[in-house]
Amino acid sequence: MSTITAGTHVHDHAHHGSVGHFFSTYVFSRDHKIIGLQFLFSTLFWFFIGGMLALGVRWQLAWPWSPMPILGNLLYKTEGGQIAPEAYTMLFTMHATVMIFMVIIPILAGAFGNFLIPLMIGAEDMAFPTLNMLSYWFMWPAFLCFGGSFFVAGGAGSSGWTVYPPLSLTAGSGQTLWLIGLTCVGVSSMMGSVNYLTTIIQMRAPGMTMFRLPMTIWAMFITAVLQAFALPVLTAAGFMQLSDRLLGTGFFIPEGWSAVNSVRAAGGGQPLLWQHLFWFYSHPAVYIMILPAMGMVSDMIACFARKPLFGYKPMVYSIAGIAGLGFIVWGHHMFVSGMNPVLGMTFMVATMLIALPSAIKVFNWLGTIWGGKIQFTTPMLFAMSFVSMFIIGGLSGIFMAATPIDIFIHDTYFIVAHFHYVLFSGTAMAVMGAIYFWFPKMFGRMMNDSWGKVHFLLTFVFLNCVFFPMHILGMVGFPRRLADPYHYETFRHLQPLNQFISICAICMVASQSIFVVNFFYSIFFGPKAGRNPWHANSLEWMAPSPPGHGNFDFQPVVYRGPYEYGSPEVDIDYYPQTMPPPENKPPQPAPAH
Amino acid sequence: MFKYHPALPIPNGKTCVWLFLSTEIMFFAGLIGTYIVLRFGAVAWPRPHDVHLSEPIGAFNTFVLICSSVTVVLALEAAKRNKAGEAKGWILLTFLLGSVFLGVKMYEYSAKFAHGLYPQEPHGLIYEKADVHYTAAVRKRLAELKTKLTLQGEHTPEQDAQIAIVDQISRDLIDPAEKAVRDEPDSPQGRILMLRLAYAIYPPQYSDEAESMAAAASPDGPPIKLVSYETEQPAANGEAPQAEAEHEGLNGEHSWLRLPVMIPGGGLWASTYFLLTGFHALHVVIGLIAFGLLMMTTLDRKRANVIENVGLYWHFVDLVWIFLFPLLYLF
Amino acid sequence: MNRFWSLVFLMVPVCGVATFVVAPYFQIWFPHDISEHGRVIDQLFMFILWLTGIIFIVTEGALVYFTWKYDGRTNPEPAKFSHGSHTLEVVWTILPAVTLLFIAIYQMNAWADAKMRKPNVPITAEVTGRQFNWDVRYPGPDGELYTPDDIIRTDGQVHLPANEEVLLVIKAADVLHSFFLPNIRMKQDVVPGMEQYMWFKARETGEFDIVCAELCGWGHYKMKGRVTFESREDFDKWLKQKSDEQNAMTIAQTKAE
Ligand code: HEA
Ligand code: HEA
Ligand code: CUA
Ligand SMILES: [Cu+2]
């Protein structure tokens, strides 16, 4: 191994003692694979926390004010295990915060981005390993801020994950921690994205032209662009809200405004300004939260359909299209916010158009399955469920994009249904699939496929039971963020349905234990996986699993795209990117770009 | 080391810096965008002079920064020619110019603070309009001064003078205003007197400002008020401020007074001004640290690319200021 | 076994459609609509529901069919070695594009009616959201708002005339709220420091919910109001009575002093 590993690594080992060696290898590692795994474990842990918070939410919605079993006595002893309204607002706020900023975004970009990018492009590591390490360790202040905020006076942030001022300005110190945490996440992602971009632009193996990159890398690349251009705006806005809270400035504070426990501050600001700045980031962010999933799904589907990806270039362009349009649709979250209705109309048109590239992707996935020889492995099941679920989540987006309808369904459970279909049923499912898929590369062992399928079946069934009924709840006008919806007589008759949803949610979380066990068991006792257990084409499968420092024990050279499954040129049904073409044919020259 | 297939003929470090700068652009785009939105959404906005912004100083700082950008380039040239000493000299000069910029900024800030021009909590003196809260605040401040002055038994003559001024202000300006307001709450009379007080303490620097100030001073819409204004109080309309425009108001004359000042839109102006200049200054500081570190190394040909990257960053910081200067000082 | 997975995926469109079919029988459907343009909104919703429903069934159907037909174990012929098809790409770019643009243009009118074409009728009332209640202010006998004789109610009970164009000014006193009338299909966030207008025409009399639809603090869930639509006469009677009460109170107070 170390023969080909670059000098720097070798020195690392020379200098440190055994303890220092342990630290430099596993804790303050600069190796992209270790950092990726660190991200993976941290985010999976928070995924669990986020799930628990969701259960708190579900409990309250099913059996309001009745003491919550187990957790209740742990958390809300004073209220006799009962969830107080302020506790409820805190629950869903932190649920969303954890899930979005500490699970989905870091697990996609941080965990899989870090682990896969250098491996898939044939690089020995990221362009800037130290920067990479920092981008992980900058997550920790965020972890501490968000985690710690539960224990400060007034509790964690409780003004929704959208923290609209002026409400968020009246909130307790938990809100301040929330904003600081967000800033740290921002810094971390910024470091990450700059690093990814440089790596992908500059460190591709010989022959790996841009249009021979796997979709995963394309998705990561464009996601990084989104991060780099959208996030700084949110960071700026975050600083402004912080100074409104702490220094008495007045960016988001209307003229002559005063409210409970708020300092007398410079007025004249505009609450709507925050919403614009926030969504200018957070809409692109929702695509940051799905593009990498789309990329990974494309790879899994092509691999298990044993057939080239249908329409590679359209797939690439549609990702770019989503990213581009993603910057000009943020207003669709503000149709009824008091924003100028004419603006609303233009945002509506842009939002409609963004369905187009998504449509192209969906059809191309279907095209990929068409005429294949499908292998129903666990990752494939998750990948196909992503397609099937994303269609639902996406189509519900069309309702809300239609401004007149949004007047009615805005801030109802229709919205909640929509984004859980894209975020959980979509991205989270894709992520689980990706874990099953790349697990062998990460740990050198296979996860148990049969149990994986059981896990899939249960999750798939229950998540639909949980989130699909929310659509019709929304049609009734059932509002979001209500600690006790049954305070309105008109919603009383919805309680049984909510109880059904909650029970299914509990079952779903419970069924994740299968995954947890399978995951940890397989790390240690799973059957050994060779370099290429799935017979896939892309570069990472050519490296030993798990790859050592420097990733490859040979100089990778790329001859073709990653999707040449079932190519007639060779007699195996796959055609690795590094495999030199048979003598009779000359190697295709790498097209210049 | 592996062989790679780079897309750009530049080293990774430089690629990274360019990408980093593009994120920085978005960051400042957010800040400047905020400034523009808030400024054009605001009812009133102070003129640069109302808040003691002086174009010459700003212009000087702009000049300093531009020079520093030039010196970086020269440093780079020298380094490329492998003239380490010369390069170090230019970097040092850049460092000094940057420090000058910061020094001037510090001076400007302290001037603002001296006038109590900063976001209100906890001690800022800016008030949006001359209303009862404002008069009350002035009275409170005067009372403080009075007690502070009268406490020590022996008064120096100039302390007596100060006491006299304090009494005079409350007698001639506050009492009538508060009386008028008390007698008939929503009559223009009271407002005019309060406005008078405000002008006396901190006169607007342009006469035509009186209009917008009067507007801001009266909660519901200018027109009616301005009419009643002409008829009832010639003293306080158009020319009164002009008269006061000569001298710089009570606060200016007696800096020890530090009475609350009335600047329509002042709060928001302060918020944005310190936000923008503050973050820019922060970037300058970071730049200076970078130059400091550079100076500890020998700046020969090997270091040229480092100098270039730091230089890129420095040019960006310079560029941002070139946007901020007209935005804050001229319009 | 693999056919089993196709069936699992088949459950998605089947159950999905079933849900929307049975929901009405459990009264889990649109709340009773009493407004003029509410009908338009519901029709729009149903139109998009049908359209997306078809797309949903077709796409999910295709997924199920392919998983069924191209199962690696049972499918004899080798995988089609195709990298895509230009014509197909064009087709399935144009079709959605047209559909989407059609939807976009088709609904603009409804939006304009709801939020842009403010009728020029006198303001019926001013509604102010505050944590956690809706206050109402009616023009008094002089028919003018913001005059001393205004009638101010803080009991969260809003009375409005039916069968005529109603124009409300809505404001917020402290934080964001959202004035949501489910039965009118109307919703508008209220922002401190801004004035929002809302207009509609109720076709029926009766008492309905006012929901606060924007998170406004711990009490957001209980920021419930009731709106009563009644005929012009009843409304005027009610106003008259309230203003009398109010005067009586003020007189009493002045006496007391
Ligand atoms: C991964 C995250 C993700 C993704 C991918 C999307 C995708 C989309 N979203 Fe979603 N959205 C969120 C996450 C996401 N959203 C979140 C978290 C919120 C709530 C935030 C909050 O308030 O808390 C939200 C809220 C939200 C709103 C605001 C609702 C409101 O608050 O009132 C709107 C309104 O337009 C919207 C629209 C859309 C649209 C049009 C798409 C499109 O991109 C979807 C495109 C996909 C398809 C259309 C399906 C596939 C296409 C076909 C099958 C082809 C044929 C289809 C047609 C011809 C129609 N979303
Ligand atoms: C990625 C984003 C994401 C995810 C995954 C989820 C997951 C879930 N969410 Fe949601 N949710 C949001 C994002 C998300 N949510 C957002 C943005 C809001 C809006 C908040 C607001 O209004 O401000 C929201 C709000 C929200 C509400 C509305 C609250 C309200 O408005 O009053 C509800 C109610 O049912 C809900 C429920 C659920 C449930 C039952 C799940 C379940 O799917 C959860 C299931 C949990 C698991 C499956 C985790 C199990 C653990 C593991 C798998 C880890 C394994 C560990 C190892 C291997 C080590 N969420
Ligand atoms: Cu008011 Cu929610
Ligand atoms: Cu969006």
Q: How would you characterize the overall build of this protein?
A:
The complex is a heterotrimer of chains A (593), B (331) and C (257). Chain A has 593 residues and is an all-alpha fold. Chain A is built from 20 helices and no strands. In chain A, helix 12 (291-305) packs across helix 17 (413-443) and helix 15 (378-401) packs antiparallel against helix 17 (413-443). The longest helix of chain A is centred in the first third of the chain and has 37 residues, at 85-121. The model of chain A is unreliable at 1-16 (pLDDT under 50). Chain B has twelve helices and two strands, in the order αααβαααααααβαα. In chain B, helix 1 (12-41) packs antiparallel against helix 11 (266-295) and helix 11 (266-295) runs antiparallel to helix 12. With 331 residues, chain B is an all-alpha fold. With 257 residues, chain C is α+β, with helices and mostly antiparallel strands. Chain C has four helices and ten strands. In chain C, strands 3-2-1-5-8 form a five-stranded mixed β-sheet. In chain C, a hairpin with a 4-residue loop joins strand 6 and strand 7 (186-190). Chains A and C meet through helix 5, helix 14, helix 15, helix 16 and helix 18 of A and helix 1, helix 2, helix 3 and strand 7 of C. Residues 283, 286, 332-333 of chain A line the site of copper (II) ion.
